[in-house]
Design a protein that fits this description.
The protein is 60% helix and 0% strand. It has ten helices and no strands. The protein has helices at residues 2-17, 28-35, 52-56, 62-72, 77-88, 100-107, 111-121, 134-143, 149-166, 170-176. α4 packs antiparallel against α5 (77-88) and α6 (100-107) crosses α7 (111-121). The longest helix has 18 residues, at 149-166.
């Protein structure tokens, strides 16, 4: 009976210490090599897996991007309706194809109101969006840059002398500025 008590005491000690249950002999490194990491595997090195940006994001079209920005801006419901017309009348390069008068007529607002909404849309990203021509596009892009002396000169050239610049008449341009 003393022997049985000793055996029971050793069994209890083994239970408490974890001895005899095989834990100390288990090879975790081998186990993990066989099963690999948990989750998605691409059959390539980890460094070659696609980034989460590519997996979880969807690229938006320019009109979708502008609509998203417009809805985040502090525009009234009526301004948003006019803004939708403006965005809907942009060509693939981002230029406004319709006139302000046409947009005003479609939304039953004054031309001044449509022009004020156009100016708000032109403040959205990318700079130069909803311009009616190249000159306006360049001026919008210049306004979006940091204020400096070069910007003022560039705006003056674009505003007054774009034709000379397009003709690459730098000698005449230098004399005028």
């Amino acid at each position: 009976s003393t022997e049985n008590a000793d055996v029971r005491q050793r069994e209890k000690a083994a239970e408490l210490t974890g001895e005899g249950d095989g834990r100390e002999e288990f090879d975790w490194n081998n186990y993990l090599e066989d099963y690999g990491p948990v989750g998605v595997t691409y059959g390539q090195k980890d460094t070659e897996a696609p980034t989460w940006d590519n997996v979880l994001t969807e690229s938006k079209s320019l009109p979708q991007y502008l609509m998203w920005q417009m809805k985040l801006s502090p525009l009234s419901k009526n301004e948003i309706k006019v803004g939708i017309q403006i965005i809907g009348n942009l060509d693939q390069n981002g230029y406004l194809c319709a006139t302000v008068a046409e947009i005003a007529s479609l939304e039953n607002v004054s031309e001044e109101y449509a022009e004020s909404v156009l100016q708000k849309i032109q403040e959205l990203d990318p700079p130069g969006i909803a311009a009616r021509n190249l000159q306006e596009c360049l001026l919008l892009q210049l306004r979006a840059t940091d204020d400096c002396a070069d910007r003022t000169l560039a705006m003056q050239i674009v505003d007054k002398y774009l034709e000379l610049l397009a003709a690459r008449d730098f000698v005449k341009l230098r004399k005028l500025t």
